Amino acid sequence: MTAQSSQKNPLLEFHDLPPFDAILASDVSPAITALLARCRSVVQQVESDPDQASWDNIVIPLDDVTEQLGRVWDLVSHLHSVCDTPALRAAYNENQPQITEFYTSLGQNLQLYKKYKALQQSDEFTHFSPARKKIIDNAIRDFKLSGAELSDEKKRRYAEIQEQLARLATTYSEHILDAINHYCLQIADKQQLTGLPDDVILAAQTRAQQMDKTGYVFGLQFPSFYPILQYAENRDLRATVYRANTTKASELGENPAWDNSAVMDQILALRAEEARLLDYASYAQVSLVPKMADSPEQVSQFLLDLARRARPHAEQDLHELRTFAAESLGIASLEAHDIAYASEKLREQRYSFSDQEVKNYFPEPAVLAGLFRVVKTLYGIDIRRDDASTWHPDVKFYRIEQQGQLVGQFYLDLYARQNKEDGAWMHGTRRRRRTGQGIQTPVAYLICNFTEPAAGKPAYFTHDDIITLFHEFGHGMHHLLTEVDELGVSGIGGVEWDAVELPSQFMENFCWEWEILQQMSAHSETGKPLPRSLYDKMTAARNFQSGLQTLRQVELALFDLSLHNGELEQKQLSVQALLNQVRSQVSVMQTPEFNRFQHGFSHIFSGAYAAGYYSYKWAEVLSADAYAAFEEAGNNAGTGIKFQREILAVGGSRPAMESFIAFRGRPPEIDALLRHSGMAS
Predict the structure, then answer these.
(1) Same structural domain, 80 and 197
(2) Are 149 and 111 a contacting pair, CB within 8 Å?
(3) How far is residue 600's CA from residue 140's CA, in Å, rounded to a whole number?
(4) What pLDDT, on the 0 to 100 scale, is given for residue 6?
(5) In a domain, 171, yes or no
(6) Catalytic choice (472, 501, 508, 620)
(7) Were both Cys, which of 105, 323, 325, 550 would link to 331 (CB 3.0–4.6 Å)?
(8) 355 falls within a domain
């Protein structure tokens, strides 16, 4: 690549926001090639520098160059997730091995490792800020976990494992996306859709028209298929959709080429081998080194204790559901595809409202305005629309200001669509840091998969959608409101993974406050705000089936922990057999034999939660206890500022437990979680 062509490549423009309207798949390989060459050159310079190890001649040059590479690869990965195309997928897969190889070699670089250790032992280190000390300590820990101390032969094998794991994780995700994109359920007779809300039927009809089909078309995107499970009176239709969703990307799915069975086995075997190379008994032990939890045994004990507390509530939940289904719905034998439908009907009967009734009160503009009011009250920030090119016309862009000063910016991509991965997430594409030019402000992507608006109308959100939005926005606040100037620990950088859900789950609590919900509501027909009578019904139903929901999360977390703690090898079990064993241990519901949930468990097979899915419940203890401080104080503004100062602002510059104690005045207690979940003694 020539210097002239480098300047013209939009991926290599770092002075501003990404020019999404100018980026082509053909830009990826030249940009990555140029950046990798630049990175390797800087690494060599740092290695050969004869001067005494210092922050300025080690950390700064490596941060400068690897941040640029990271930002470009994050951008490519992001586009691969939200607007996948054959050309972009090819470019991503072509360059991923090179990216993996570089970061693996960086982590195994013995010369750099020695320089970091020398810096840790230098007089300069004693004068470092806590943030800088934490960065150096984290780096030395990560060198060890990357195999820097291994023999050359073991380093080569470790590098091969990392390349294979990266490739397999991508394959796993692409299989799921392809299975979701390909699935098409066409319904000709509207009578089969009895019970479905009008907006869901209209969306299915619009989708059929867009595909030049007649009738109604449903896919496996969550807003498309889940309303069938929740509302459709046609039991056969529910069974069809349930089976399609729970067998996607498996040997029972539509296309054998998208079967993730072998991919999972290979991923797990490679992770176990990586652990052995590093002299750990299991991958779970490796995973926990940078987390709050001390050992797999501690995590297991935590989960089993939670299961013990939740089980009586779950058994009561299931008994009530089965009785109701038999007596009121004529369903003598409750099947998995009936659960969501019967639960919705039971909730409607018990609390006299439906999710759809609530949804009619929450148009997108009012919800966003309400969310922005909440964070203004909590943290004293203003959020305004801003201008930037985006990857899709539906994406909105915002800026955050505090006392007139720019704090950060974020993209908001709310709706489900073809070629976009399912789920919701926040990704910090640019982190705060101090440079020679001043403060580099952070930028985030906030991604959801809600139902898109009907023609001429705003999108309307369910209460669960609002909770999801607040959750991801909590992650966004963690990234965007940091006050740390050092790249390695600003925002969520360096935060223990089992604490990273604290700010996100904390934000969910405000979705249950009366004044907040009322102010963000406007009925689709009357424009009136949410009535107190409906709110009271919602709060009465808040802990509806919380026992079942808690056991489900424990089941997934224990399954993840067991997969990565050597039980497959010790007990000579398949992934499916191990999942069945965990279910028999903690679940109170029977799962169909054909269910292949694990084939779509992206969190642990292609995400960052391997041996860490327990983090959701672990951090929920922290978040519930943190919110209890607001309940006790009765002052959102003053307590919010303290939360921002002690949790969000400090990022990963100190251990998460220290940050929690600085905010709460004591270690976390489980009482608030049990109380909020309706499971207190």
Answers:
(1) no
(2) no
(3) 34
(4) 44
(5) no
(6) 472
(7) 325
(8) no
pLDDT single digits (tens) 211-266: 999 999 999 999 999 999 999 999 999 999 999 999 999 999 999 999 999 999 99
| 441-444, long-range: CB < 8 A, 24+ apart | 441/406, 441/407, 441/408, 441/409, 442/408, 442/409, 442/479, 442/480, 442/482, 442/490, 442/491, 443/17, 443/408, 443/409, 443/410, 443/411, 444/408, 444/409, 444/410, 444/411, 444/476, 444/479, 444/480
Of 455, 233, 225, 462, residue with least CA distance to 356 = 462
Contact assessment for residue 609 and residue 662, using Cβ atoms and an 8 Å cutoff: no
Q: Which residues pair with residue 402 across a beta bridge?
A: 405
DSSP-derived secondary structure letter, 600: G
Alpha carbons 370 and 638: distance in angstroms, whole number: 19
Using the 3D structure, point to which of 506, 540, 574 is the last residue of a domain. 540
Report pLDDT digits (tens) over 18-73. Answer: 999 999 999 999 999 999 999 999 999 999 999 999 999 999 999 999 999 999 99
225 and 368 belong to one structural domain: no
- Out of 257, 273, 304, a domain closes at 257
Q: What is the DSSP string of 273-339?
A: HHHHHTT-S-HHHHHHTTSS---HHHHHHHHHHHHHHHHHHHHHHHHHHHHHHHHHS--SS--GGGH
* pLDDT of the residue at 376: 96
What is the block-wise mean pLDDT of the chain (681 residues), using blocks of 10 residues?
A: 56 91 96 98 96 96 97 97 96 97 97 97 97 98 97 98 98 97 97 96 95 97 97 98 98 96 98 98 97 97 96 97 98 98 97 95 98 96 97 97 97 96 95 94 98 91 98 98 98 96 97 97 97 97 96 98 94 95 96 98 96 97 96 86 97 97 96 90 67
- Please tell me whether residues 408 and 530 are part of one structural domain: yes
472 is catalytic: yes
Contacts of 261 (CB under 8 A, 6+ apart): 250, 251, 575, 599
d(C-alpha 499, C-alpha 646), whole Å: 14
Q: Is residue 666 part of a domain?
A: no
What is the count of structural domains for the chain?
3
CB 543 within 8 A of CB 678: yes
Which amino acid would we find at residue 433?
A: R
CATH number for the domain that contains residue 48:
1.10.1370.40
Q: Are residues 135 and 190 in the same domain?
A: no
Token reading at 399 = 């800026």
Which residue segment(s) compose the domain that 9 sits in? 3-149
- Claim to verify: residue 241 and residue 371 sit in the same structural domain: no
Amino acid at 681: S
492 in the same domain as 393 = yes
